[in-house]
Amino acid sequence: MLSQLDALRREAEEEVASASSLPALAEVEIRYLGRKGALTQLLRSLGSLPPEERPAAGRSVNDAKEAIQAAVNARRAHLSRKELASRLEQETLDVTLPGRAPRSGTFHPINSTIDRVRQVMVGLGFEFVESPDVELYRYNFEALNYPPDHPAMDEQMSFYVSDGVLLRTQTTSAQGRVMPHRKPPFRIAVVGRCYRYETVDATHNHTFYQVDGFMVDRGVTMAHLKGTMEAINKALFGPDVRTRFRPDYFPFVEPGAETAISCVFCSGKGCRICKDSGWLEQGGSGLIHPNVLRGCGIDPEEWSGYAFGWGIERLPMLLYGIDDIRLFYDNDIRFLQQF
Amino acid sequence: MRLPVEWLKEYVDLPLSDAELANMFTMSGSEVEGIHDGVFEVKVTPNRGDTLSVVGMAIEAAALTRQQPRLPKPTVPEDAQPHQPFITIRIDAPELCARYAARLVADVRIGPSPEWMQRRLIQAGMRPINNVVDITNYVMMELGQPLHAFDYDLLASKTIIVRTAAPGEEITTLDGVQRQLHPEILVIADAERPVAIAGIMGGAETEVTDRTTRILLESAHFSPLCIRRGAKRLGMSTEASFRFERWVDPSGTVLALDRAVELMRELGVASVVPGVEDCYVRRYAPVTITLRPERCNAILGTCFPPSFMAETLSALGLRVSGSAPLEVTVPTRRGDIQSEIDLIEEVARIAGYDRIPFELPHDNLIGRHSDWQLTSDLIRRVLAGAGLNEAVSHTLTDPALVAHLYDGTPVRLRNPNSEEFSVLRPSLLPLLAGAARLSASRGARDIALFEVGRIFVPAPDGLVERFSAAGLITGSLMGGRWNMRPVALQADFYLCKGVVEDLLRSMNVANAAFEPERVHGFHPGRAARIVVGGERAGVMGQLHPEVRDALELPGDTYVFELDPDVLTRHANPRKYHPLPRFPAVQRDIAFVVDAHLPAAEAQRVILDAGAQMVESATVFDAYQGEHLPEGKKSLAFSLVLRSQTGTLTDEAAEAVVDRIRAALATQLGATPR
């Protein structure tokens, strides 16, 4: 009987090993281990043995049964893995087909630029305020020390809404609105649209964005203006950028200055973009004119302040190589989706 | 101003290259914008009328290089005896004309001016005319004082009257244009009529011609404001008016006359009649200003010694005495220097701004974004995240475009420069529609835009400036993807509403109601106002097909516009809700109601009937058509039921659903589906 058992076991193991599919394996399993299987039959026939041989024979049959079961399980795991592998093979996708998630929207390059400028200026302790686009002549010019009908207004031709009401030509108009209601020290910034009566071409628009910053405290100097502008520019353009100041005239500041940064394309060596000067003009700045402070109820002998402003559009134009300022306001979807 | 460098070097030694010289001027406030064949294009700031001449620039250059300039000192042969009066000058408007002087020349021989003079004038941007005109222009370029030449024999009664124009007076100017004068305009008249518009242009009737034998040369100081207003009123700008507007030295009036007649004599153009008629009615004296050296350093952030300040100001031709403080006397040439701060700027300007250090202020001021910027940032982030592209459109726009989506009258500019940019946008929607039109005209079909910005709403006393947030979607948010079901993220009312709801959720605005409304320019059955806390917070809907077609949009277009201020006012503070401790039970119910019944109404009934047990009731199907009676629709809701006190049994859940079914039947006449 033991020799019969060994043969049966070898035979079963061979069949398990050669079962090539899960159903074929199941069939083999039933044939040997099922209720009517060969091993089960053999177990039943143990009764015909002498009682003293029964335990050993029973152990042998059970050992063989477990061995076959183990072989079946191993084979099943192997076949399952193989089957899964072949199914996955069939599920292969063309990974070069494009993705299909909804595309996220974009931010306008002017606003992205403003976001950056805001981040830098808030970091330097500027408090942003809002100031109206539709402004009084009084705040746009008078409070800023423009004498009536002065030639300095030639560059600030205005659109009028009604008598004494115009579209601000510079965000500097916020000074006269803020300063009378604040006790120094303060450091304020404002960013927004300005409007000038100009004919529109690739580099000029009747509407543009400006950012202005100003602070008043005891002992504010030209050196503080220079240090602040330099810090802003280094934050915006990198630690190697240089900031240059040269005298210029704006009625609301004195000393007045024009700021320029070393050309970000040629590092100041001279190129097409900076017209070989090595410098890119940035905007106007200076110390707040004593007349402006006095007009806002601030004693210029006790307090002093700086002010600066510059146009926003130039930055994304330089940064992205945009050669026509009108593109910003066309909102061609093909333009917007590039940013 | 065009500045010939070779001419400049006649008055001051400048052993510098053109580039170095240009840089020196630029860094001291007279920006050299270009260099062409030895000519600088100088941008003169409006406060510096004194540098609108070669000599003016020479004085600057001399100060910057610490030299004495060689200024012209014309010599004119004069008689020992008092001269015969040749003209009577009367200034009727002394506040507009402080000084008027004249000289007479005879034996005039009109002809071309010498080649060297013509060359300099051409370099300076002026066209040579004849020797007389060229000499007046030459002296203006050299000294900054505009001159005018009259044909002496054509002046009635040999009288010059400086007065404002009488109402109705006219004059034909040298350019042949007949001009209507105005009492605000200052004129030079003879005994009978205006013969020149003061400081702007001479008259044709007394013009110097080939037949002229005697010339009266005029040199004057006019009020800058008067000349500017006159020139603006007449729409004229001349070399003369440009200078008078920016200050011409009242002490240089006679010098310029002398220089002109010196040149005429030297060049054989005319002989000089001795004597100057000089009517100086309102005298300018040099002003003396105190400069505190410590104040100067406190403003500049420098440590300049007082002696350095004195030296710097002296180099500019200012007279300095004392040391602490400095007493500085300013020549009348420098009309721009009126107070201490002006002197401080001069010190910094001539010393060079590069000598001021870079420093950061030391203080405890804290930076922050404005409230509006923070709100705007949130809205922009959500809308861009939803797949919309941010637009920045003009404030100024076309009333015809506005009319499509706004039924009021937008605020109009008084002086628009074109109809296309003549009104202030009262809403962002027309601008977004205009942008979509432009993109569509260039072939785009899938367009999704938003803008956050200011609008200008007409009001009884002018306008109100408000913030707004708007969006527009046409086509698909998934356009251009392969094998997509056609409806996937296709713009429709509910996609648009979903974007709005997403924004409201992000702003933590709860309980917004979408109520049907007729909106100008919208589809009458597909428009809603959005109401939050009883306040109108905006509109949304589909554009009217006629508007869509008028704007040549590629397909049905959906828009929304919200008032961020209202939303912010009703935004709830963010608060954490504890996560539920007991499991939820899900049940679906479907029922048939009248087709006109708003789904929101059914939802309200469900929530009311379910009391605290219904956590949410969400529509998952709305159907109308086949298999349903006419005028009916089926709604299916997915309910999430949950008890706060224990695990809900099936029986308890069923009881809640039964209560809901009963409420739907009695309140809305709903029948089970």
Order of helices and strands of chain A: HHHHHEEHEEHEEHEEEHEHHH
What is the total tally of β strands of chain A?
A: 10
Mean pLDDT of chain A: 92
The biggest sheet of chain B, with number of strands, parallel, antiparallel or mixed sense and barrel status, is: 7 strands, mixed
Spatial separation of the terminal alpha carbons of chain B = 88 Å
- What count of structural domains of chain A? 2
Helix content of chain A: 25-40%
CATH class of the largest domain in chain B: Alpha Beta
Number of domains of chain B: 5
Average pLDDT level of chain B: 94
Shape of chain B: elongated
Please state the structural category of chain B. Answer: alpha+beta
Write structural notes for this entry.
The complex is a heterodimer of chains A (339) and B (673). With 339 residues, chain A is of the alpha+beta class. Chain A has two domains: 2-90; 109-336, BirA Bifunctional Protein, domain 2 (2-Layer Sandwich). Chain A has twelve helices and ten strands. In chain A, β7 (243-247) and β8 (253-262) form a beta hairpin. In chain A, α1 (2-18) runs parallel beside α4 (54-90) and α2 packs antiparallel against α4 (54-90). Chain B has 673 residues and is an alpha+beta fold. Chain B folds into five domains: 2-64, Phenylalanyl-tRNA Synthetase, Chain B, domain 1, CATH 3.30.56; 88-280, Phenylalanyl-trna Synthetase, Chain B, domain 3 (Phenylalanyl-tRNA Synthetase, Chain B, domain 3, 3-Layer(bba) Sandwich); 287-355, Phenylalanyl-tRNA Synthetase, Chain B, domain 1 (2-Layer Sandwich); 371-569, Bira Bifunctional Protein, Domain 2 (BirA Bifunctional Protein, domain 2, 2-Layer Sandwich), CATH 3.30.930.10; 585-672, Ferrodoxin-fold anticodon-binding domain (Alpha-Beta Plaits, 2-Layer Sandwich), CATH 3.30.70. Chain B is built from 19 helices and 30 strands. In chain B, the strands form eight sheets. In chain B, strands 18-21-22-26-25-24-23 form a seven-stranded mixed β-sheet, sandwiched between helices. Chain B has a five-stranded mixed β-sheet with strand order 4-7-10-11-12. In chain B, strands 6-13-5-14 form a four-stranded antiparallel β-sheet. In chain B, 43% of the residues are buried. At the A-B interface, α5, β1, β3, β5 and β6 of A face α6, α9, α11, α12 and β18 of B.
